[in-house]
Amino acid sequence: MRIAHVAKYFSGSGGIESYTRSIATAALKAGHDVHVICASETKNYSESVENGIKVTRLPEIASMMNAPITQRLFSSLENLKPDVVHLHMPNPWAEMNVFLYKLLRPQTKLIVTYHSDVIAYNPLMRLFTALRYAYLIPAMNILCNRVIATSSNYVRGSVVLTLSGKKVVVVPLGVDTKKYCPGKIKSGAFTFLFVGRLIPYKGLENLIKACGIVKGSGKKFLLYIVGSGKLRAALGKTAAGIGVKDRVVFLGSVPDQKLPSMYKKCDVFVLPSVYKSEAFGLAQLEAMSSGKPVISTAIRGSGVPFVNKNGVTGIVVRPRDEIALANAMMLLMDNKKLRTRLGLNARKRASSLFDEKKVSKRIIGIYQR
To answer: Could you give the CA distance from residue 364 to residue 369 in angstroms, rounded to a whole number?
Structure first.
């Protein structure tokens, strides 16, 4: 089969990009002809072959709802004539192009992975979201062969997925359990770790304030923050303002090949996200696969608490609750036996339910039905 993934981007180590790369690589190994069509972060058109995957990057001319608007998307599909189009959503401009292509080429199989809703933070976004739903829900029901959701939690919490009915199948994100494996690299101080973009829905301000509470108890620790984003300067000021500048270390973006060692260095991973934009939390899964206990949040309608099971693989607290977050951090600092048990359970859960080979095999099976 000729398979075309349509995604926002295909570089870096973000959750959707990692997922796309994993599935594309598995399909390639299974003997399929695999292409990725995405936006170019350099704004130039390019074609390349990356580890056997043919990648077309299209010039980005603007953005819509935090997603790129590109030139030549429809014509790229026309030239390629794929047997299967795998669309990664949300991606409004790509959605409209792909749905139009499916209308004109009904024999093409259309598979959608619905990664998350677009969360409307202001009145303008709410208007755009309402307009998008007006075409999105009918199009998904009529044109999609299958709609993949990453957790049952998200299906129950999403109007779009709920109204897509029988088209929906749940297949979680996967993790490379060989790459992310247990091990310990001594780092001296007790270490917490966060990996992700420095953006509002990640809840990093709450985490830094929780660090202030932990420091106030007299405990010694470090928090490593891996990632970049628009809140970097503001978060640095918050850390300085509450007196934890010496405890919070901003490492910036870390190359993908170095991420496994970051998980090995930490004692506990923390994902303090506050909005349903955090639909799954792939970074917490990487930490679990590395045998680390996770502190995460009970975001309503999100798959985050589905991945990290409270009291089994980690501790789940209420979003924005800095005291509960600090208490969870201190509990795991004080109780090595609990840390060890949660970490062992985390590795078992990651290996049994989320191994990327099992996930990719299920998705390729969906292509072939």
So the answer is: 9
Same domain, 118 and 261: no
Are residues 164 and 213 both part of a single domain?
Answer: no
Write b or e for each residue in 294-325: b if 16 or more Cβ atoms lie within 10 A of its Cβ, otherwise e: bbbbebeebbbbbbbbeeebbbbbebebbebb
The CA-based dihedral angle spanning residues 299, 302, 307, 309, taken in that order and rounded to the nearest 10 degrees: 40
Q: What confidence tens digit (pLDDT) does each residue in 259-296 have? A: 999 999 999 999 999 999 899 999 999 999 999 999 99
Per the DSSP assignment, residues forming a β-bridge with 244 are: none
- Tally the domains of the chain: 2
Whether residues 34 and 60 fall in one domain: yes
CATH number assigned to the domain comprising residue 288: 3.40.50.2000
Helix (H) or strand (E) holding 252: strand 248-252
Q: Measured at the alpha carbon of residue 55, what is the angle toward residues 52 and 61, in degrees to the nearest 5?
A: 170
What Rg, from alpha-carbon coordinates, does the chain have? 21
Those residues with Cβ within 8 angstroms of residue 245's Cβ, 6 or more apart along the chain or in another chain: 236, 239
- The verdict on residue 158 lying in a domain is yes
Q: Do residues 301 and 158 touch, judged by C-beta distance below 8 A?
A: yes
Q: What are phi and psi of 279, to 5 degrees?
A: -80, -25
Does position 14 have pLDDT exceeding 80, yes or no? no
Say which residues have a Cβ less than 8 Å from residue 257's Cβ, sequence separation at least 6: none
Distance, in Å, from the CA atom of 207 to the CA atom of 354, rounded to the nearest integer, reads: 27
**What tokens appear for 203 in the block?**
């809840």
The parent domain of residue 27 ranges over 2-174+355-368
If 0-12 CB within 10 Å is exposed, 13-18 middle and 19+ buried, where does residue 276 land? buried
On whether both 6 and 136 belong to a single domain, the answer is: yes
Q: Residues 189, 195, 199, 200: is their CA dihedral positive or negative? A: negative
Report the C-alpha gap between 113 and 355 in whole angstroms.
18
Mean pLDDT of the chain: 94
What tens digit of pLDDT does each residue of 123-153 get? 777 888 888 889 899 999 999 999 999 999 9
Residue reference for tokens 């048990």: 341
